[in-house]
Q: What sequence folds into this?
């Protein structure tokens, strides 16, 4: 959808600049229709799979990922939610550099969480536990979740012992009714209540 570049302002501030490839947003529907035709032609998916729903959801996700103005707003909301958290950090959006096709934010250091093989097991266990905690807090406390599970969206910064969270394009809010029903299902599974 886009490419991220390192930049520095004239004052020396480090930034991450995500620039959308030209025409990506406009080609989503035709690309997905072509993909659907390929799926149907080669009968890739088993009978009974709702391919139209799959394509529709994929299109919705891609359109969200292409809306950099909305992504900037989501990132600012997440920044506020985690402003007092000592382990999770959301970089600041640099609104003056943002547009429909450009997303600019504070640059953060760190390693992708799937590239921590050389870190002590205790550190990796802590990070794994904190990411699970993050998932549960986003869903059940905030009802607002960063739904792109790409490990490159979670940078562990060992110097600050924190995880920097990036890429909020696919973040979505869940209504309380949905979350309450989901919690009942989780509770039922945990207590073996069929």
A:
């Amino acid at each position: 959808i886009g490419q991220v570049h390192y930049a520095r302002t004239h004052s020396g501030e480090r930034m991450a600049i995500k620039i959308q490839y030209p025409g990506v947003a406009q080609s989503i529907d035709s690309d997905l229709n072509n993909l659907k035709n390929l799926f149907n032609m080669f009968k890739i998916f088993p009978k009974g799979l709702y391919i139209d729903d799959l394509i529709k959801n994929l299109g919705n996700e891609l359109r969200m990922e292409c809306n950099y103005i909305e992504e900037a707003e989501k990132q600012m909301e997440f920044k506020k939610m985690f402003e007092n958290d000592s382990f999770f950090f959301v970089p600041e959006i640099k609104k003056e550099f943002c547009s429909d096709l450009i997303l600019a934010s504070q640059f953060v250091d760190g390693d992708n969480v799937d590239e921590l093989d050389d870190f002590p097991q205790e550190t990796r266990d802590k990070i794994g536990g904190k990411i699970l905690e993050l998932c549960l807090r986003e869903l059940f406390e905030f009802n607002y979740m960063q739904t792109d599970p790409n490990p490159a969206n979670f940078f562990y910064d060992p110097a600050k012992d924190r995880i920097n969270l990036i890429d909020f394009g696919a973040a979505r809010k869940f209504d309380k009714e949905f979350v309450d029903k989901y919690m009942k299902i989780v509770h039922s599974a945990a207590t073996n209540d069929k």
In short: Strands lie at 2-8, 14-20, 88-89, 102-106, 111-112, 144-145, 154-157, 162-165, 172-173.
